[in-house]
Amino acid sequence: MATLRPPPPAAAAADGGIEENAMAILDTAGIKDARDLHDDRAAFLETVRSACLSADNPSPPSWRMYNAVFQILQDSSSLELIMASFHLLMELGKQYPRAYLTDSGSGLALVVVKESWSPFHLRSGVACGEIGGNTRHLNHLFDSSRFSSLIEDMVGTANHTDAYNGIEHIKNMLLLQYLVSTLEADFVPRHVAYKESLDWVIFRESLLQMLLVSRRLAFKSLVKNCISLLLNQHYQEVEDGISSKEGSTKSAPDLDSSLAVVSFEFERKALASVQKLFIMVMNLDLIRKEADTMGLTSRADGCRNPILDAVLDELTYNISYLSPFLLNFVEWKWKLEIILQYFSKYCGKPAVRTRRSDNSQHDLTLENVLSLFSTVATAKAIVKKMSSEVVQLLLANAYQVCLYVEGDSSKDSDATKKIGATLLQISDGFVSAFQNLRKINPDIQILPFEKEALFTAATMTRILKNKQTYE
């Protein structure tokens, strides 16, 4: 839930001297001695923090000050400055949000401070009057193409271990984390406001929508690279596990280096950011579909395939990606949706939605999927298309989602609808599906994850049936 906030103070420079310092730092890069430049930048960051966050009456930073901090994050080769500028940007974003909700009396109203600084340059109308009309200082802002290139670069440097590439990789991870947090801070209050008003314009003007509709963005490549980042983390954890069992060949100084520690810490946070990005785009696609059915969209909103289609294309083309992707993607509602749509590619798709129509009753549910495995004949037809290994993996992951939803006190209604039956019915159907898979192939190999799910389902079926008997 987005936090309710009062209107922030007008965006004025906290101190004219700070701005002059910022301009001096930016204009003398490459001229000053490296040590002097480092000290100037560190002092500037501390001054901005004091004036905008720690003072008794803090003032919001000006456009130039924000931009200078962002440039320090991108230009520095010092881990100290990279970390300091990143944390300062994150704290400033929380203190002075660009979009927030306010209580208008009749409900929640969205407030967007359009003239405020943003790390994104997504349209020519970006406010550059505050920098004297000089667009030179827009070079460090991110458009759609540069955002995609950042993720591509992260994939390319993920396995490099030398000091320079290590610093660059950390910098890229922090940049991604900050950019996604900016998208999220803009997206969440809009999502809350949209639920109340169903006004598509709220999202038409969102940073995420403008980022994705740009013709400069190769959307399918972006999704592919994001999946690669998630898989890199999986394979790295597997390798680390093997190394810890066999005994690492790395020296103690390497293991204890601050670079290795920081890199490991922010690797996980960057991958969490990738998942946040996926989930935001999935929610945006859902909202866009709803707006389409109500006739609220136009050509100006652009056209692209939903992210789930791109994800499924990648997972069905590269079967080896499926298990590690599902293992790393832990947003339960969308994990189940991915599994159901994967099955729908082979089990017959639901009726096509058309503009101004509602065919939600034809959506595939887990109950529907399990019914397709209720007889040997229908199960055999699906296994022939998908392979028994893929079927087992998808069913086991879907059952894992069911267990999570059952134990979640909030009871996500969307996830419950996608399951479509009680836990007893799902557990019983899951056991029956595996029994039929074994009838099709008596020599079928069931992996540990699937075995655990099958054992749990059989246990839950017995417990829940006994409970019904005694009630």
Automatic annotation (TrEMBL):
<dbReference type="InterPro" id="IPR034561">
    <property type="entry name" value="SNI1"/>
</dbReference>
<dbReference type="GO" id="GO:0030915">
    <property type="term" value="C:Smc5-Smc6 complex"/>
</dbReference>
<dbReference type="GO" id="GO:0000976">
    <property type="term" value="F:transcription cis-regulatory region binding"/>
</dbReference>
<protein>
    <submittedName>
        <fullName>Uncharacterized protein</fullName>
    </submittedName>
</protein>
<dbReference type="GO" id="GO:0010113">
    <property type="term" value="P:negative regulation of systemic acquired resistance"/>
</dbReference>
<dbReference type="GO" id="GO:0005634">
    <property type="term" value="C:nucleus"/>
</dbReference>
<dbReference type="GO" id="GO:0006974">
    <property type="term" value="P:DNA damage response"/>
</dbReference>
<dbReference type="GO" id="GO:0045892">
    <property type="term" value="P:negative regulation of DNA-templated transcription"/>
</dbReference>
